[in-house]
């Protein structure tokens, strides 16, 4: 078994060609992809994926959220399957690799096992989760969230896009609304390969990220109300400037995040200043503070300091302040055994690696609540993602897929007795 396992490798050039073939579906305008969930392009991409799975003798299951589960049988009919996968949907100006790499690397594992006539005791199921991006039907990770019991099916079906179309209706329209009850599947483990979507691996010239945690997230919407007045004729001591309050709170957010370096991050990404006129002092500012960290206690500390500091800033300027939590989720600690399987695979294959905390949300973060889960990451150029210029190398995708394969097979167990 050891020699068989140590010699296992994916066909990296075939995986790369599959990525390029999928990228032809839903092309963007600048070299990337616009294959948003439950569009005609998404349906076309799903059909291509199914055709590839059919060619490998896999059986396809589809649940009521449209998530696809391609099963490769194991030798033990009673063994729970090892699941592997990610998502095929993209951002409106998305890249060719975000999510897609994790699905097609799972398919490549099966192709390589078939070619080598290697069987595992546990079945292996390659998964495409519906609406991971959440760009058309917010929020993100909807289908995996329903699977993990975080959302109800009816709530998910009622999500609307910018045109008022509902997720449930579009799922039926494109023909991918399955009969299977969401969440009824039981998993032995789940693994997800993903591009890093950050700059650390490339900057440190490393090939593999062993993801140990997923950051927790907290969104706080702040509304500051001051007094609109003329920018030219209002003396400085008589101004009640909501824009100034937002600027000072922006600085406060940065200071709070830096105080918990290196893992904490914080920023104000969304803001509205009213009336947004060149010669009127802002009378209102509405903005959202985004704090993230893998330790829930640290997030709580950051929120407490934000509340205290923001109120002091508002009082100093004379502003009325309102603060409201508008979203978030707790940090994720991935399964120790699954993480070890990833780390051991990287070491056995001789790839340079380091532990990572995922700064973005992934389907694995929800699935971790119902099954032992871990993630593998590979570098991406300049850490760029959610952008048509997103890029990786064939060598990086091959390394990530090889580590994924070894971790999955080690968990699914090669059957020596066959």
Q: Helical percent range?
A: 25-40%
Mean pLDDT: 96
Tell me the major beta sheet: 9 strands, mixed
Structural class: alpha/beta
Give the strand tally.
15
Tally of separate helices = 13
Element string (H = helix, E = strand):
HHHEEEHEHHHEHEEEHEEEHEEHEHEH
Distance between the termini: 12 Å
Beta-strand content estimate: 15-25%
What ranges have pLDDT less than 50 throughout 5 or more consecutive residues? none
Taking Cα atoms only, what radius of gyration do you get, to the nearest Å?
24 Å
What global shape is seen?
Answer: elongated
Outline the structure in words.
The chain has 418 residues and is an alpha/beta fold. It contains 13 helices and 15 strands. Strands 1, 2, 3, 4, 5, 6, 13, 14 and 15 form a 9-stranded mixed β-sheet that branches. A 4-stranded antiparallel β-sheet has the order 9-11-7-12, covered by helices on one side. Strands 8-10 form a two-stranded antiparallel ribbon. β3 (82-86), α4 (100-116) and β4 form a beta-alpha-beta unit. The longest helix is centred in the last third of the chain and has 22 residues, at 296-317. The radius of gyration is 24 Å and the shape is elongated. The N and C termini lie close together (12 Å).
